[in-house]
Amino acid sequence: MSPIALERTRFIMLCLMMLCVSLAQNLGAQQTLKGIVRGQVVNDSTNLSLPFTNIFIANSTIGTFTDSTGRFQIKDVPYGIHKVVASIVGYVPQIVTVRITDTTANNIVFRLKLQNIQLSAVDIEGNEPKEWKLNLQKFLTEFFGSTSNAEECKLLNPEVLDFAVDDKKSEFVATVREPLVIENNALGYRLSYYLKYFTLTKKVLQFFGEARFDPLETRSAEDSSRWKINREDTYYGSRRHFFSTLFHHISKEKGFNVKSISKEQQQRPDFYRIEAGSYINIPGSHRTEERVNSEDFVADGASIYEKKLSFPGSIQITYSKSLFNSKISEVELEQSSITIYSNGEIAEPLGVLTSGYWSTQRAAELLPSDYEP
Fold this sequence. Notes:
single chain; Immunoglobulin-like; 4 domains; six-stranded antiparallel β-sheet; 35% strand
């Protein structure tokens, strides 16, 4: 090759390299597009402003507090669909859904209603009844689960919990008067968890809520390394990981294999959990399994940040990239379709029945929606 041709080749290669860098930078910029949420919080009855109100993007580390005039501003909110929560002691929390599609600020006015506080049996008697303690232990076992993460979780304010037991229906219900304050030393977060629903029956556990995540203070490099490893292990193969890859049509290349289980020959497992729990398949059950392309179950939603997921019967999901045993889960929809967001969150928390590995991921495995490994 002549010197002129060689120089021309080098110039073309340099241009291609610069083009690749530019494209990568532009792609990164598109992936990190962020907007602003601002507004004010007032008392619904008096219209007086409510300073020092907790304002946060649900299930994330993004949040702030209102100033002395009840006003707030949250910057760096990723494009997409989010729930914004306003909460202060003595008032009923309020949630507003926003769509962040450009840099124009979204303005919200929260009108909070005073909360009717009813004294529980603990408050009235002044001491914790034996039955309440037993119910508390049952709640903690079900809520956190029995994973290694659960062993490092602590509920700091159990006194805000109340329980109701219906023996005829075999139903156990938990409610809260204030957000649960949880310290998760396995993942390195302190959570303010606004429990919205918690019901346990013989076959199903259902619970969901909105959480604000605050990173725990790092005491050593060992803590940082351990939290990083635990977060990644918790995220990879999780339901949110799968739904996120499904949204972006990359589930198979990310290690997820899906089989469809025919509804006609399907036998529901003896124990199901939603959001949490354990599951043992019934020995000797007969069913038909067929490997499918999971992307076929996804259709466009109302915006570019949401998609509809629907499938007949149930599906089995195997995550094959686990360092140890494969993570196998089963999913069945409780309604015709559910809405999934780009970050893997779903709009209808009670619209999905999960069993297998995903059913073991409970409150101890909660990660903020803005977490990315």
